[in-house]
Amino acid sequence: MNIIVFGGSGFLGSHVSDKLSEIGHNVSIYDIQNSKYLRKDQTMILGDILDEKKVKEAIQGHDVVYNFAGYADLDTASTSPRNTTELNLIGNINIIEGCIASKVNQFVYASTIYVFSEAGGFYRCSKQAAEIYLEEYHNRYGMNYTILRFGSLYGPRSDERNSIYKYLKKALYDGKIKIKASGHEIREYIHVRDASKISARILAPEYYNKRFVLTGHQAIPVSQMLKMIQEIVKNPVEIEYEDADSGSDKVGDHYEITPYSFVPKVGEKFSPELYTDMGQGLIETIADIESRENPVYYKK
Question: What CATH number was assigned to the domain covering residues 2-295?
Answer without folding.
Answer: 3.40.50.720
